[in-house]
Amino acid sequence: MSTTGVLVLRLAGPLQSWGASSRFAARRTTESAPTKSGVIGLLASAAGIQRGDDNALAPLAALRFGVRIDQPGIRIRDFQTAHNAVTEKAMPLSERFYLADAVFVAALEGDPALLNGLHTAVRTPMYPPFLGRRSCPPTGPLELEFHPDARLEQILRAVPWQASAWYRKHHRHALPSHLTVLREKPTGDQSPADSLRDQPLSFSAAHRRHALRDVITDRVPRPTEASHVPAQHDPFAVLSDDFDVLDEESA
């Protein structure tokens, strides 16, 4: 068997939105976890790959993708209005859905040399990264680890739990024993799978195209917490003590 590497990312931010459909619809939904097309788009942007360069995109799209839900966040809805610049008539009201305060571990498996290059690109990106939409910047560094010889399933079981400090503290009396993993079905795997139109073929603005891919849903034991969580701005940190007081009063 040829050697495969695994690149691991931590996807966390105030807002994320990972749509797999409804590109031009008035109602723009989000999946409950990052999509392959969204994460491949993030990596392509970091590497400086242009939207219409399908040949450069193909090796990235061939990587096998998986994601672990470490902190599910909550789904929120935003209403948007617009006016026609020529007629000044109001356009139909549109809805945008987001995941607020979520944390995910994403892993990509494939050629170690390609992943090593992407690892470097994520640390020094050509274009700023975003979590599904340009209005959703990450809160901290994206790169977690690069393993030059590993398997996706193994890594998603072993990476320390990445939930934020306030989330772990607030849920300390009912921490999850297992975490949900969504992984791309490998060749020969007979596990039941769901199909998602999320396999990127082209990001060209003129002919953006995606194919179906099979996704397996697993549950894995929650790993130990990360021994070191990168320093980051947490606007809710000052409210932690108030949450604790409310918990104790309601107990």
Sequence-ordered SSE layout with sheet pairings:
Layout: E1 5-16, E2 27-28, H1 36-46, H2 54-61, E3 64-71, E4 74-80, E5 94-110, H3 112-123, E6 143-147, H4 152-158, H5 165-170, E7 178-184, E8 194-202, E9 209-221, H6 240-250
Parallel strand pairs: 2-5
Antiparallel strand pairs: 1-5, 1-6, 3-5, 3-7, 4-5, 7-9, 8-9
Question: What's the average pLDDT?
Answer: 88
CATH level 1 name: Alpha Beta
Instruction: Look at the helices and sheets and give the structural class.
Output: alpha+beta
Give helix % range.
Answer: 10-25%
Principal-axis shape = globular
| Domain unit count | 1
The number of E-state strands comes to 9
Biggest pleated sheet: 9 strands, mixed
Radius of gyration: 19 Å
**Terminal residue distance:** 55 Å
Series of H and E elements? EEHHEEEHEHHEEEH
Strand content: 25-35%
Task: Record keyword descriptors for this entry.
251 residues; alpha+beta; Alpha-Beta Plaits; 9-stranded mixed β-sheet; 9 strands
Describe the fold and architecture.
- The chain starts with a strand and ends with a helix.
- Helices cover 22% and strands 32% of the residues.
- The protein has helices spanning 36-46, 54-61, 112-123, 152-158, 165-170, 240-250, and strands at residues 5-16, 27-28, 64-71, 74-80, 94-110, 143-147, 178-184, 194-202, 209-221.
- A hairpin with a 6-residue loop joins strand 8 (194-202) and strand 9.
- Strands 1, 2, 3, 4, 5, 6, 7, 8 and 9 form a nine-stranded mixed beta sheet that branches.
- It has six helices and nine strands.
- It is globular.
